[in-house]
Amino acid sequence: MSSYDVIVIGSGPGGYVCAIRCAQLGLKTACVEGRETLGGTCLNIGCIPSKALLHATEMLHEAEHNFEKMGLKGKSPSVDWQQMQAYKDDTIAQNTKGIEFLFKKNKVDWLKGWGSIPEAGKVKVGDEVHEAKNIVIASGSVPSSLPGVEIDEEIVVSSTGALSLGKIPKKMVVIGAGVIGLEMGSVYARLGAEVTVVEYLDTITPTMDGEVQKQFQKLLAKQGMTFVLGAAVKGVEVKNKKAKVSYTLKKDDSEQTLDADVVLVATGRKSYTDGLGLADLGVELTDRGQVKTDEHWATSVKGIHAIGDAITGPMLAHKAEDEGMAVAEVLAGKHGHVNYGVIPSVIYTHPEVASVGKTEAELKDEGVPYKAGKFSFMGNGRAKANFAADGFVKILAHKETDRILGAHIIGPMAGDLIHEICVAMEFGAAAQDIALTCHAHPTYSEAVREAALACGDGAIHA
Ligand code: FAD
Description:
By secondary structure, the protein is an alpha/beta fold. It has 14 helices and 22 strands. The longest helix is centred in the N-terminal third of the chain and has 26 residues, at about 80-105. The chain is globular, with a radius of gyration of 23 Å. The model has no long low-confidence stretch (mean pLDDT about 95). Its EC number is 1.8.1.4.
């Protein structure tokens, strides 16, 4: 039996970051992981592999659509799916091995196997029981399905199966127009699949800014994706390796079907705490099965904390990481803090979509007086040169104080551009602060400055 100051269960971005920070703060730390490699959902079957496939297929799209325009002639590349998969797998391996290296460097012990908590202060892995002054649950999440839809990871797949299909399907139906569905849908659309997205709500990406939603849907449709909105999926039938998706159109109650070679079920994820023994311990869960925590990530049982996808809040890697660092600070007797008002969210399609803070709809609901400064990438020289002028930056600032309340970007590198606004919001900056900051020319970030100028006396290039 070994004794630790902290044992973290789960090595996703929440767990591994927490373990490393605990060790850096002088706590003797171990991390339990049942998977064969470290890094959790994010590195193995989430953020990283999906971004590798998005990158490869974006390059293909660029070659097919823009090379000739720039005088780059010749045959456009053909797709070697096995090689693209190998590139994705290599990207995963580099990242997961990187975490192993960081564990060694920071002296975090990896306890290999599935862990459970027989009692507060103890973690069982295999036949061994280890002692821990503190336990952090970072057990993450798994895909959730719909009633009547059985995932076989071959014809009817979750995001996990969609990352490793045996071949590129001719026809794909994506159930759910959220981030994962649209990212994976656009991968296969660029690879030539006929992709239809079926969504229960009347809009795609329901939490996004309304104007962004509309333009985003238009741009994805232009890239060949078809949307069926306001449709309640009733079931998926699989026969002879083909699927039939049946749904009811809410506007007229009509029953419809769609044929597909592959159906991706992207209807969300649920917290995963199976096998930890939380019920016997008396660790309280929400009615959605998430571990209940207070503002310092403490659960209802002393000495047990929880973070990441296992608890409430957006299921995002960087939210899990921030909580991992913050809870480590708390366990080391410091003051860990996460500003939940400034957590960016990004969709890595082409163009990218990114947002932080409040949407216009939320500000209206809350009765907050605001102004919106908007700037189109059409007025940005770099975007025009790079065939990336679709989209805009919108900054929302308080009408009287000019303090930035939110920002919504659809356009090139939106996922990187959003961080200028995040930093500004962390510092309580006004739109004028960004407007008065010199931005290098020609960069996409000038569009952010122009949107900030539009909150005041007006953008220059509009
Ligand atoms: P996880 O990453 O889920 O890790 C939990 C780990 O705990 C797992 O490895 C699991 O094996 C282990 N575990 C669980 N129980 C036990 C146990 N009892 N014993 C031992 N080990 C255990 N987020 C973003 O921010 N950006 C993105 O671009 C993005 N893309 C995504 C794409 C896809 C396809 C998917 C599925 C998700 C994506 N996400 C993205 C979400 C992101 O992956 C999660 O929010 C993040 O991984 C949550 O981190 P976590 O540490 O809470 O849990």
